[in-house]
Automatic annotation (TrEMBL):
Residue span(s) of domain Disease resistance protein At4g27190-like leucine-rich repeats: 2-138
Keyword match Acetylation: no
Family annotation (Pfam families): LRR_RPS2 (PF23247)
Residues spanning the membrane: none
Keywords associated with the record: Plant defense
Record-given protein name: Disease resistance protein At4g27190-like leucine-rich repeats domain-containing protein
Native organism: Punica granatum
Top-level taxon of origin: Eukaryota
SUPFAM superfamilies: RNI-like (SSF52047)
């Protein structure tokens, strides 16, 4: 898996991966973005996301700035309960742009972020406000880097 650069293309049919509950990505050293633009709606039932040892990964969710205008209401990943990111030295963003109006993570109960030294912050302010179920947060990030300004 060291040479894998793309897991899915941005033209994934909205219902083709809608029953997927857990994704684990490990050791994909050439993968730069996990979810490219246009794939958000395909993972509506995703509950567990684990990413480990992907040295080139810079962004987990690549969301287009105007994507909210194309999507009716809040869409996707609302069932995510567990997020685990480990040993991703080049990870800069979980979301490059503010996912407000596109993604909501109100069911996230556990988040673990370890070995992600380039990560600028864990959550956009709009996402942090909706984390009403968050019970466990493990992070090596500095406290001022948990949320973005907002």
């Amino acid at each position: 898996m060291n040479s894998l650069t793309t897991i899915w293309h941005s033209q994934v049919a909205a219902d083709s991966l809608s029953e997927l509950i857990e994704i684990t990505v490990e050791g994909c050293d050439k993968l730069v973005t996990l979810f490219p633009p246009g794939t958000v709606r395909s993972f509506q039932n995703l509950e567990v996301l684990k990413i480990r040892r992907c040295s080139a990964l810079k962004v987990v969710y690549e969301i287009e700035e105007n994507a909210g205008s194309d999507l009716p209401g809040l869409v996707a990943i609302t069932k995510l309960k567990e997020l685990s990111l480990a040993d991703l030295a080049n990870l800069q963003h979980i979301w490059r742009t503010d996912p407000k109006g596109i993604l909501s993570f109100q069911n996230l109960s556990s988040a673990s972020v370890m070995g992600c030294s380039s990560l600028r912050y864990l959550f956009h302010a709009s996402v942090a406000q909706a984390l009403v179920q968050l019970v466990e947060l493990k992070s090596q990030a500095n406290p001022h880097r948990v949320t973005s300004k907002g």
